Amino acid sequence: MKKHLISLTFATLLCNSYSALAASESSSSSTSNINFFATVNNTMLTKGLLDLNVKAAVAQGQKNTPELQKALKDELINRELLAQQAERMDLEKGLDLDDQYTQLRQTLLIQALVEDHFKKSPITDKQLHEEYDRQRQLIGNANAGFQYRVSQIIVANESDAIDLINRINKGELFGKLAQQYSIADGAKNNGGQLGWLFPGQLSPELQQIGSKLNKGAIYNAPIQVQGGWAIVKLDDKRNYKLPGFEESKPQLRQALRNELIVQTVLSQQALSQRLDKEAE
Q: pTM of whole model > 0.90?
């Protein structure tokens, strides 16, 4: 809710000089405009547009309340005022609307794909509980614990790793050395940063190291991992408390939606590769 109020305040300040032009909401609309919630300089804003924004807010975990709907209505009015000002300034010519439309079309089709799937196969409480249990496993089957922000450098042999540890201890920057020497392409460009991880996402060795190291410290011995030797740095750690099941339901639903998108992409990639081979 705070996000909507902040953006509303910002937009209201920008559009203050136009506020008198915006028509009142449905209370002042005629019955013939029943599908519109407001009129802005003769441009009617549809209830369908409002419904789309309400649905997006609810999908992000917000509750559909009269306060949310009012904030969204006000924001949509202010967005239309800004758009009209841009049109008056003839700024539309500088926009690549064809590409923007293509991206919007893709977004809407993906949304339709996901909604069609879950309309035919609604998410069950069993699936939500399974996802909740999976997330609990990531933090070590506990209701509370630590998250670790970890960086690493992966090199091919132990002697190279020991050499880099000595250089780091002498003051050379971990991130710079990761970019120069790490053979782990995924994190190399980020200076070796892996981001925030739960204990369940770490190997047993790294779990023990994370609990022993202070923030900003490196482990003074290389660790053998698949494909090489790792130099590990603990950038930060923080307490984490797992919300209760009922409280987590909106996030769990979104996680299942995201998983559907990932699995659909993978299946379509596999199908495309198979068709390419058959066409050779």
A: no
